[in-house]
C-alpha cells in the first residue's frame, strides 16, 4: 500500500483533470510534504508511472505561447477509480497501516458513505483490540515496563500505541455517528483543493520539473 498512490489518485479525482503542478500544489497545501514525504519529483514520477499502469489517462495539452514541451493533464481511469477506493477502504480498516497512509485515507473519508466509514473503522478497532490483547498476554501494563527489564519498554510502547489508536478511532466513530462532516451521498463534500492559479501559502517551490508539469513559465 502507498500513501503517494492514494494521495495522487485522490488529488486528480478532486479536479477531474489535473496537471502535475496542480497535484503537487494540493499536496503541499494539505501539508503532505511534511507527513507523507511527497517530494515534487516523486509526485511527477508517480503520475507518469500510474499512467503507464493504466490508473491514469494522460492528455497532452498544447504548450504556452512562451514555448516549451506540451503540458500533460491526467484523469483517473475506471481502473484507477477501483484502485483508489480499494486502497482507501483497506487503509481505514487495517489496524497497522503506516501513519502517512492512514493520514491520507482520513483525508478522503468523505468520498465514502458515512455508515461504510464507520464499519471500516470498527474493523480497525477490532484489530487494535486484538493486538493489544496479544501483547498483554506477555506483559502486564500495571506492573510497568521495568518488570521485564528494558525490553519491557518495547511492550509499553506497543500498549501505549494501541491505546492511543483505540482512543482516536473511537472518537472519530463517535463524531461520525453524531453527524460530523458531509459524507458521500449527503451533499457537497469538502475538497480542500486550490483553484488553478491560486497562490499556495504553503508552497515550497519552485522545483525542477514544475514548468513541464504545468507550473508557471517565464513569459506566461
What does the model show?
- The protein has 220 residues and is mainly alpha-helical.
- Helices cover 51% and strands 6% of the residues.
- It contains eight helices and three strands, in the order H-E-H-H-H-E-E-H-H-H-H.
- It has a three-stranded antiparallel β-sheet.
- Helix 5 crosses helix 6 and helix 5 packs across helix 7 (114-136).
- The chain is elongated.
- 29% of the residues are buried.
Protein topology:
Elements: H1 3-15, E1 18-19, H2 20-29, H3 32-35, H4 40-52, E2 56-61, E3 71-76, H5 78-93, H6 99-106, H7 114-136, H8 152-177
Antiparallel strand pairs: 1-3, 2-3
Helix-strand pattern: HEHHHEEHHHH
| Rg for CA atoms | 21 Å
Structural class computed from helices and strand pairing: mainly alpha
Average pLDDT, rounded to a whole number, is 86
Given the C-alpha coordinates, what overall shape results?
elongated
Number of helices: 8
Cα end-to-end separation? 39 Å
Uncertain stretches of 5 or more adjacent residues: none
Number of strands: 3
In a few lines, what is going on in this structure?
It contains 8 helices and 3 strands, in the order αβαααββαααα. By secondary structure, the protein is mainly alpha-helical.
Keywords:
3 strands, mainly alpha, 51% helix
Amino acid at each position: 500500500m502507498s500513501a503517494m498512490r492514494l494521495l495522487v489518485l485522490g488529488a486528480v479525482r478532486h479536479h477531474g483533470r489535473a496537471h502535475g503542478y496542480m497535484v503537487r500544489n494540493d499536496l503541499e497545501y494539505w501539508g503532505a510534504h511534511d507527513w507523507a514525504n511527497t517530494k515534487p519529483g516523486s509526485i511527477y514520477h508517480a503520475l507518469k508511472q500510474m499512467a503507464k499502469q493504466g490508473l491514469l489517462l494522460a492528455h497532452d495539452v498544447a504548450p504556452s505561447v512562451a514555448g516549451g514541451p506540451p503540458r500533460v493533464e491526467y484523469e483517473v481511469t475506471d481502473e484507477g477509480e477501483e484502485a483508489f477506493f480499494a486502497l482507501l477502504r483497506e487503509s481505514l480498516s487495517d489496524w497497522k497501516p503506516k501513519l502517512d497512509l492512514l493520514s491520507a485515507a482520513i483525508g478522503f473519508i468523505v468520498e465514502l458513505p458515512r455508515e461504510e466509514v464507520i464499519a471500516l473503522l470498527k474493523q480497525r478497532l477490532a484489530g487494535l483490540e486484538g493486538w493489544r490483547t496479544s501483547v498483554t498476554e506477555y506483559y502486564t501494563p500495571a506492573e510497568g515496563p521495568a518488570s521485564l527489564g528494558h525490553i519491557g519498554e518495547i511492550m509499553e510502547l506497543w500498549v501505549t500505541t494501541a491505546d492511543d489508536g483505540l482512543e482516536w478511532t473511537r472518537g472519530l466513530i463517535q463524531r461520525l455517528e453524531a453527524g460530523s462532516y458531509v459524507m458521500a451521498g449527503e451533499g457537497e463534500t469538502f475538497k480542500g483543493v486550490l483553484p488553478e492559479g491560486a497562490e499556495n501559502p504553503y508552497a515550497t517551490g519552485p522545483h525542477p520539473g514544475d514548468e513541464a508539469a504545468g507550473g508557471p513559465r517565464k513569459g506566461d
